[in-house]
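Annotated sample (chain length 174).
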Amino acid sequence: MALSRREFLTTTASAAAASGALTLIASDATGGEPVKTEGAQPFFKVYPIGTVEKTKGSTRIRILDKHAPALKGLDGWSHVNVFWWFDKNDTPAKRSILQVHPRGNKKNPLTGVFACRAPVRPNLIALTVCKVLSVEGNVVTLDKIDAFDKTPVLDLKPVIGSDAPKDAKRPSWL
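Output written by the structure step:
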């Protein structure tokens, strides 16, 4: 029995969630490494490297033990880009929303999700710049993050001063 694309995405997302994998784009059921077939989109899996922990006014990222060696030297940086997954919005319906009123404000113009920071988008990758307070073992303590407790973390990258261009512009609604 052939599954519709929507049924396949739903089934794949459920299976990936159960296995700890996050499915980004699914067009065939082969899984594993990115697969390219004639006329089809590649299939990718992303595995969390850790999770957000928010308790008693403290914000931490607990890195999986197997990835802890990757934290070496992070304590030398003041800020880190935290890439995380909008796991609470991971439904086919929310992934199909392509335009929103930024910040949920109907007074803001209808805007494409690539032109704002809406939590609904085709791939639910989020980015927050966080101040690093400490790195101890496999735990990174941050000043704050706009992710929920138990949110999957995909990657960490140090913030470099030259990341922000001096001539960056922004829309008037911001």
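Annotation: The CA atoms of residues 112 and 119 lie 12 Å apart.
Annotation: The chain is about 10% helix and 30% strand.
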